[in-house]
Amino acid sequence: MGKKGKTARLKRKPAPRFWPIHRKEFVWVAKPSSGPHSLQQSLPLTLVLRDILGVAKTRKEAKTIVSEGKVYVDGIVRRRDDFPVGLMDVISIPDASKYFRIMPFKKGLYINPINKEDATFKLSRVENQKITKKHQVQFNLHDGSNILAKPTSSEGTSKSTYETFDTLKLSLPEKQVLDCITTKEGNFVAITGGKNIGVQGKIIEIEKTEAKKRRQALVVVEDDKGTRYQTILDFVFSIGQAMPLANLQEAAAPV
């Protein structure tokens, strides 16, 4: 009889390439549990604590730290060491006064140190939206969470406060909308996929789409050195208007 469902094991060789592990030192590695991010775009907490931050020497120590409620993800205590953390998640270790935001980097993801004030909010991109049976607009965010809002139209049509690809600044842990960053020319963005992943800069131009999906629209991004990059709208994550709300600090430990 064949196996049913997913396996709870993961060998090191097929693990995501940006994970900071030795491929041939051991056979197995902690596999992220089901959660807000996919396997290829996340890290289990135990890898963050042991292999990146160095606050634990073994997985057993990492399990103890997490089970004691000393690690917060997006302002919520997580007690499973295999909980998946991914793009823009905020990791807080209050006892050690350490706070981090996961940012895109040229190798994949980057554990970026931030201050305590910056750890009070999270940036989430609107991936999709729909009208519920109660005539509310449900916004689907990039981390799998949803928020509800009333349509701005009195007729209850699909016209809503936020648009797809907008970035919402959410308070933690309440996840109340503090601000909205639209994806338009002149705003700061981070590229989250493709060969230019990790690049930050301003949007110079967004292609007008008519015969293809908007997600595939070409976007030109210029960094602070004046170098221009081309990517698609699906790989663009708005991070600020007058100034970036999330910067990539080179002093952090790369993933």
Give an account of the 3D structure.
The chain is mainly beta and 255 residues long. The chain folds into three domains: 1-116, Structural Genomics Hypothetical 15.5 Kd Protein In mrcA-pckA Intergenic Region, Chain A; 120-170, OB fold (Dihydrolipoamide Acetyltransferase, E2P), CATH 2.40.50.740; 188-241, SH3 type barrels (Roll), CATH 2.30.30.30. The protein has two helices and 18 strands. The chain is globular and about 50 Å long.
Give the helix level as a range of percent. under 10%
State the CATH topology of the largest domain.
Answer: Structural Genomics Hypothetical 15.5 Kd Protein In mrcA-pckA Intergenic Region, Chain A
User: What is the typical, i.e. mean, pLDDT?
Assistant: 89
**Roughly what fraction of the amino acids lie in strands?**
25-35%
Q: In the CATH classification, which architecture of the largest domain applies?
A: Roll
What is the general shape? Answer: globular
The SS-based structural class is mainly beta
The biggest beta sheet, please? 6 strands, antiparallel
What is the number of strand segments? Answer: 18
User: Number of folding domains?
Assistant: 3
Radius of gyration, CA atoms, in whole angstroms: 19 Å
Helix count? 2
Kindly report the spatial arrangement of strands forming the biggest sheet.
3-2-5-6-7-18
Going by CATH, the homologous superfamily of the largest domain would be: RNA-binding S4 domain
